[in-house]
Amino acid sequence: MLPTSDIKPDGGLAMAGQSVYVCKSAGAKKYHFNRNCGGLKRCSHEIKTSSVKEAEAIGLTQCAYKKCR
Known about the structure:
Layout: E1 5-7, E2 13-15, E3 19-23, E4 30-32, H1 38-41, E5 47-51, H2 52-57, E6 61-62
Parallel strand pairs: 4-6
Antiparallel strand pairs: 1-2, 3-4, 3-5
């Protein structure tokens, strides 16, 4: 089966199996494509890699910061 894809807000293509960064805080709401994203730098918990599909399955949405894309 081929990986599914979604259109990112900047018009790029995000593959469902692509690695993203996730803050393992109970209050985390976003996943990040850039490890150096300002939103992710605020995370005081462990940061893990995940796939877009896994991140969205637990209710996370894509970070909207331009530097995160």
